[in-house]
Predict the structure.
Amino acid sequence: MSHSKNNTLKKPGFAQAAIDELGWWQAHKFLFLRRLSQVSVFAMFAIGPWFGLWLLKGNLSASELLSVVPLSDPLASLQVLLTGHIPELSLILGAVIIALFYALLGGRVFCSWVCPVNMVTDLASWLRRKMNLPRTSEMPRNLRYYLLALVLILPVLTGMTVWEWVNPVPVLYRAVLFSAGSGLWILAAIFLLDLFISERAWCGHLCPTGALFALLGKASPVKVSAVNAKDCDNCMDCFDVCPERQVLKPALRGQQPMITDSDCTQCGRCIDVCAQRVFQYQNRIALKAENNQ
Amino acid sequence: MSQVNQSKFSVKGVNRRQFLATSAKAGCAMGLLGMGITAVAKQSAQLDPLAIRPPGALSEDDFLSACVRCGLCVEACPYDTLKLARWFEGAATGTPYFTARTIPCEMCEDIPCVKACPSGSLDHELTDIDQSKMGIAVLIDEKNCLNFKGLRCDVCYRVCPLIDDAITLEMQHNNRSDHHAMFLPTVNSDSCTGCGKCEHVCVLEEAAIRVLPAHIALGKTAAHDTYINTEETTLEMLNKGLEL
């Protein structure tokens, strides 16, 4: 590697160690799989209007799988219920199915493996790293729970699902599938917020959808675990890339290897960028069963 | 920095004062944000008079409580009539509507849009499309309507799915020629479903007949009106005395 003049750090570039040690593919595996998952979910919706293949109808607010299984956003459904409107059974059923699915798989798996906003905020974060922008002062991480409370109180007060006017989660799908592109300003605003005002501001501090999924995933058996915490060489690459870096500390300090904080989005980037192979996905229940044997 | 916090109120290094201060700040921030987005929502909750909700839609207030903006009705519509509202146009962002002048409702007998709706913002009680009330057609510009000029355009009447019921042609003496008749398209608001076919086909550059949401199109008798049971007679009496 040639010596770069303005690189004042002693260590090589971000994740270089992992790329050298494990190869480019292993150092980007979960990133690639996540993008594949996000694009696939989107494609399952898009092939309907584009090619007439109706796998999933609707958008992320509510949809229908193969014209049979209802699926719906628990946050949108909760808002509807809180306005006092009694929806069709399918909306409730859909919300329960989605809630159970993510409760089992790890709540914020939605954020990192499905939600399109993640691509926007990951891009902003990547650009921050590339441009070497300085750390910004951190907003409180629990702001999202205040916002979640707000989102759920407003329908009670106003009788409208107020959050759905600005909710960024369905915006991209609506723009592409229903040619309602003028809502994209919301994503642009989030991109600029994350890039220039406060890093990881949206997904890591504010998003009420993420907050609800975090609550749903509290008991989920799937977790990332620092199984080889003793091999950690403090290169800080995982801290640089983690969208919720506060969840890494307890695991790396050896208090307990498993990242139990439900703010963890299970994105697996810490697994990717670690040359020492400190992290891996684990199944709590399977682990317990093994230990009991 | 590494001082040990000995206060018995401290949890994770945060004492009561800090906790109250941050909570108050976050609470205020959320209050401001809440007022902001409520203002935005309230302002754009006003439905454009030419944006018509799908069949079976609840009243606008209830609709905005119920609709999750999923677009299932839009994808169920076989005629591409329905659209999801964009920001800055027509209806509350992401909610379904149609513009009759562009593509009217074809009044499918099985009403697929209502069946697709998971939230009940399109009322599943509606099973007969002829009973739907998407809006009311109003012959809004008599001055330019060709039939009011004594011509036999009749297009809005001919295309009406409930011809001779929702739109009738009322014969009147033509005062201009003094020996011809005029056939005036007349909407019966009790039968009109608001499908918008009449507005769609109106031959003028700007339609003389338009579908408007019922709350704009319809008057309402006052509750204290003693003629409430003889509405038709009352209206006839009034109309005769009025210069149109």
